[in-house]
Amino acid sequence: RESVTPLGISAAAKTTGIEAVPRALESISCVVPCYNEAENLERLLPPLSAALALLAPQWEIVLVDDGSTDATGARMAQWTRQPGVRALQLSRNFGKEAALTAGLQAAAGQVVVMMDADLQHSPAMLDTFVRHWRAGADVVYAVRTHREAESGFKRLGVRWFYGLINGADRFEVPPGAGDFRLMDRKVVTALLALPERNRFMKGLYAWVGFEAVAVPYVPDERAHGQSHFSPLRMIALALDGLTAFTVWPLRAVVALGFALALLAFGYGTYLVVDYLMYGHDVNGWTTIVVSLMFFAGVQLVSLGVVGEYVGRIYGEVKQRPLYVVKRELGRGLQEDA
Ligand code: UDP
Ligand code: MG
């Protein structure tokens, strides 16, 4: 389990002691997925490039335009005239997961940071991230310390989700951790080597392992626009995660089948005994109709659960690329004069 430690003393350094001498940071890449973030880019890029220039002699910002329909593409293109700013424009909207993967694939730095474009992730945190990395951590991730004004319903859903996804495996997906994180080059390599199309990033981060340090933070308000993740999209994302990392729904279906068969057997025995001993006639029309509908429902649900997995297998088997790049602009890592 990762632990939150005071600045500069990473879990890795404490437990292994191998990183007695702090690592020197030569180059850093910052990947920013953008979907209709024109206003936010203007505000994010000046403080972000200033922060990066202080951290390493070589730095780059990799902006990924995830098929924006506003002025994001044009603004990005202007920004790429600045040294250190690169842009990758995808041919359409592929989703944040795919945009992040595109950015990671393009990033060339010794460490890679990922952050949102909407200023919810403060560039001021990068200094803390890098300090943990210098001290030996391979992954430094930010953990939300409080969830902003959420309904009890959503909180319950989130608790269930983490309970279910962490129920079985040898690794744990930490609640509250998102895509705001720093990763060493070897972690990025491991992440990109995972071949699946279903990029449930939170799960993939946890799956690759490495020495990770959590840094608590309170996300800022979104500067402009609205969140792209509606409750429905969150549920779809949770389903992606659960099917990608667990097979318990399939086992639950098996268990349910067994339980119902046992119940039916018991009831059947009772009916036979009842008939033989008391000679009761055939009746119970209601029982038949209700149980017919009940079992038909259970069967359809079970088929649906199996279908979810089959559909995902189909998606993986097609081997389509995760994203298509339309245009690449700007030059990346270079000396910061
Ligand atoms: N994003 C993206 N593609 C999408 C949706 C979102 O690249 O299809 C980007 C978005 O521009 C932002 C980040 O992902 O930089 C996080 O999105 P958002 O702020 O809407 O999510 P939230 O903060 O509510 O989780
Ligand atoms: Mg946001």
TrEMBL record:
GO annotations of cellular component type: plasma membrane
Listed CDD domains: DPM1_like_bac
TM helices/strands, residue ranges: none
GO MF terms, alphabetically ordered: glycosyltransferase activity
Record's keyword annotation contains Methyltransferase: no
Record membrane topology: Multi-pass membrane protein
Stored Pfam families: Glycos_transf_2
Keywords assigned by UniProt, alphabetized: Glycosyltransferase, Membrane, Transferase, Transmembrane, Transmembrane helix
Matching InterPro entries: Glyco_trans_2-like, Glycosyltransferase_2, Nucleotide-diphossugar_trans
Subcellular location: Membrane
Coiled coil regions in record: none
PANTHER family assigned: PROPHAGE BACTOPRENOL GLUCOSYL TRANSFERASE HOMOLOG, UNDECAPRENYL-PHOSPHATE 4-DEOXY-4-FORMAMIDO-L-ARABINOSE TRANSFERASE-RELATED
Protein name, as recorded: Glycosyltransferase
Organism encoding this protein: Acidovorax carolinensis
